[in-house]
Amino acid sequence: MNSPLIDQCLIEELANSDSEIRSNALEKLEEWIKNTTTKKAISEETLKIISKGLYYTLWMQDKALLHEDLCDRIVIIHDLFKRAQEQVSYYFCLLSIIDQNILSIDKWRINKFLMLVRRIFRNIFNYVSKKNWNRSVCQKYIDMIDINILNTEEIKFSNVMISHIVSVFMDEFDKALNVVPSKPEEQFLWYTPFLKALENKNTSDYIFERITKEIFGGILLIIEMENSDDAEIERSSYHFPIVHISDSLFNIAKSDNVKSKRRKVLYNMVEKFKLVEKKYKQ
């Protein structure tokens, strides 16, 4: 069965210089998706075309006050799709088109695209938390981060894009977990792509440093703050999988795949996790 095709004129209208034409095109796109996804699966190729049109819709929106609303509108299109694969592919296509252009986006426009990336991950966590962190639902997004972004064997995302994803991940994950907590073992699944990246020889030194600092250093910082005497600090409503993370970091550190310089960083991180583990159990 052939995948439904979208009208190229509609995509062109999404990038029109006239804001009213763009707004009408966005409404038409939403209706097209609603009607089409109930009948047939929308292919990744079509989702790439849609994502490109939406990229230029955001590009053409110069009014700063409307950036946030437009980002939110682009992001929640995800919820219109009836199939999990369509939803995941849609977000991957959006992230891909941003990555392809991120080094050429001027300083006046870059912030709205970085905002869109953050909102994508915010909605991922909001969506799966509403599904009570169902493992099969979560795994599709985890695989996207793992296989298609961090540890891909094909076309790689730029360090700039990966760095931004890493920087927003823990912040948005923490927010979602405080609203709908998940079990430590469920939570640990989300850290596995980053752990794999630490052992991956193809991971650049820059991304290695960003992951250790933003993801695992971020966890340590949250725990350290929560064990302080500051009464104003709001405590998390969930528990980190400290032992799982510590054991995984240790196994990676002793792996032959890891360079000596990175091994030292990882062992140091393991020691820090061992120390906070005692506080965490109190």
From TrEMBL:
It is found in: Nucleus. InterPro entries: RRP1. Pfam families: Nop52. Coiled coil: none annotated. Keywords: Nucleus, rRNA processing. One of its GO terms (cellular component) is preribosome, small subunit precursor. GO terms for biological process: rRNA processing. Belongs to the RRP1 family. This is Uncharacterized protein. The lineage of its organism: Eukaryota, Metazoa, Ecdysozoa, Nematoda, Chromadorea.
